[in-house]
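Researcher: Next sequence.
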Amino acid sequence: RAPEYDPQSAYAIFSARELMKSAGMYQEAIPLYAAELAIEADEGRKLALLRDEAETCKLAGDLAAAGRALAQALDLGDEDPALKQEYAELVLSRAQSGADVGADERARAVHFLGALASEAEGEHGLAYAAAALELDPGDDVALGAYANQAGNLGRDEDIATRYAAYLKVNPNGAHADAARRSVGEPGGGDATA
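Model: Next structure:
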């Protein structure tokens, strides 16, 4: 049974929520985050609550709700790259599991991953770009970062596979000519150019 609490007391809500979590009542604890957020004025505390809510949602097995909590945290204006990465990884995980992931969620995750890929170097940059391309094989920023990172790492053989997938969904994109050259399709010019 859920503990009773004063809905106007942040401490009471927090205490009840933590009791539920310690009892493994994760699904029952989730609504208490909204109750505390409704009375919380401090932006830093709201951000911490939303990140904690995301973790509790994960423990409850509700990855979509976890994603909504992280998106809400990002909407508060948090520019933390770790939060962006966490959000994007969650969206990717849901997509890989076959869950229904909305176009807006995908686009936001691809945007974050593409930006992270452009900023990171080496294997990290390549991994961010690959994750973005898994969500959207036709993304120009992600493909550019992937081609750059793979080339720098001497992994040119990986680029052709990504280019082929890119052409299927974005045949007129910014990298279409390079993609055609890489896969030997007409319209790409000389493959050695």
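Model: The mean pLDDT is 92. The longest helix spans residues 43-59.
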